Amino acid sequence: FSTFSGIFQSSGVCQACKRDICGRCSVAKKVAMDTKDGAAKMKGVVFCL
Fold it and tell me: Which residue, among 23, 18, 25, has the nearest Cα to 48 in the 3D structure?
């Protein structure tokens, strides 16, 4: 049973729908984010598939 316990662990929260997601059903993408000074900064975010 312990070999399957890692499958259901959450790897994060989807930034689009805010649901918990695992490593198999998610993808990390770099997205441009605004900063306080108006510059764009690339930040890695996680989305569900």
Answer: 25
Rg of the chain over Cα atoms, rounded to whole angstroms, equals 14
d(CA 9, CA 21): 8
SS3 for 38?
A: coil
Dihedral sign from CA coordinates of 38, 42, 43, 49: positive
The encoded tokens of residue 36 equal 């306080």
* For the chain, percent of residues with pLDDT exceeding 70: 78
What are the two backbone dihedrals, phi and then psi, of residue 6, each rounded to the nearest 5 degrees? -70, -20
